Amino acid sequence: MSSVLVFLENKNREISRISWEAMAAAHTLAEGLGLPVDLALAASPGNPIFEKIHGKAPRTVYAIDDKLLHDYTADGFTEAYRQLIEHVKPAYVVLPHTYQVRDFAPRLATRFKQVLISDVTGIEAPSGTTTPAFIRQLLQGKLNATYRHPGTGVCFLSVQAGAFRADPAHGGATTLEPFHPKLDAGQIRVKPGEPFRASAQTVDLGSAAILVSVGRGIKEEANLPIVQELATALGAELAASRPICDNGWLPMERQVGSSGQTVAPKVYLAIGISGAIQHLVGMKGSQCIVAINKDENAPIFEVADYGIVGDLFEIVPALTAAVRKVKA
Amino acid sequence: MKIIVAIKQVPERDARIRIDAEAKWIDLRDVEFMMNESDAYALEEALQLKEAHGGEVVVLSAGPERVGKTIREALAKGADRAIHIESDDLAGYDALGVASLLAAAIREDDGEDPDLILTGLQSDDLGLGQTGVILAELLNLPHASLILKIEKTGSGIKVLRELEDGWFQHLELPAPAVLTIQSGNSKLRYATLMGIKRAKTKEVRRVTVADLITVDPGAKPADPVVQLDRVSLPSKQRTTQILSGSPAEAAAALVEKLQFEVRAL
Known about the structure:
Chain A is of the alpha/beta class. In chain A, 26% of the residues lie in helices and 25% in strands. By secondary structure, chain B is an alpha/beta fold.
């Protein structure tokens, strides 16, 4: 019987939050198709991480167990996951769209002559004769596209962080089944080093109630003081989108987005930030989002509660003055 | 060192978004094009490796005639020669189909095999983020993605890979290998006047899909396994109150909202 198979991700000995979201997406898909959901995780069956699996009960949890999977490598994971897919024969494979998944999943899908539908933000259930539809974003979030997998063979998809709400914890009987892939050390061509952090964190964006975040629209490093003044007036921390940190105008630790920090403050002010997907995934959980941008079609306005369309060089100083007035 | 850099031409960042008549893509009339951002960084890494170790940088791109402009830009920046896979209907291919064409062009390229194949992490238009990794699988080469730095070692390369949440990792790979490059690590060079002049005399070999299939029947892309059904403008996830008026009026209105509705001040 075919199924929906979800690969969870083990990140620092925890199952990452986005894995639960992928599981919720898989349940949505499976319910529409009347299929069971199975889970898989690369860890030995005795690993306490398996006790942390919650949400709607899957049919089977596969513990993919081999010492060559202890450290992540694309070669090792691609081959082990391929063997499990051959064994389980699912109709759909669902993965969280993480950096690790982006590294091996295209390779895994290619081994089945398939193409991963990556970074999915929505699933439309099948109706009548149609197959399910998968929504993903194009042009950095300015356009939505509906994709289908019309053929036979396993359909691979990865789901975007924050796009699906993780199901609340449920009890339920689940079978834990060890799976031992046949791996050979010679198949692993890449030698991975230990992960490290570039520098000690001195700023904790996660604990700030208000974040003033600045993007490409600021144009030059010399213009940064106007946003710093606004942040000071508001008692806020200063944050930034990736290009600002790449340019070295602000340290990496102030970067919000998929390659930086994920934040959810009470108020997030996005100044001169267009709102590419990579930035939005890091801040769209904020309670209140304010966008100041010259382009009224910028994707940031899709997630904003309040927006001001115009020249940030006029608006930001006016805002600083208005904040100082009410705080005085 | 022979380095092949796969680059893609994409609509400019500020291109106007109008959906075309078939609702399959945006209307490309009046749209300007540019080199995909992370591909530009892949080219920069390749040029720096060549400067340090010698060798050749070959640019590979697929698409219609207009792609020639982006190829010339890469040559003007310092690439030695280029391969242009000419096709007017790439939209009919899925990522595996496009990667199959690139793989065929790499296999049939004259001279020695490449030591390194670089491309950007993902395209700014379709954003699938897969072409480089699929290419590695098709060529049966090791790969690493999200790469910020490349160093040559005795038998291969050592790279710096970006992980999530501000973490990094070094990896060692044997050559040849495929790397997908993350944007932003180095400063992109501009083409010099001399470079632009020289680019005009550099070799751009044009091959068609039919040419590639003649040499390598395996290059014939299969029917797409994934299809783009339609595109649409995104619906808003939140209701946005646009605060209008002069900068001072909009600012005052926002402060009032933050004070009395959000209760954050």
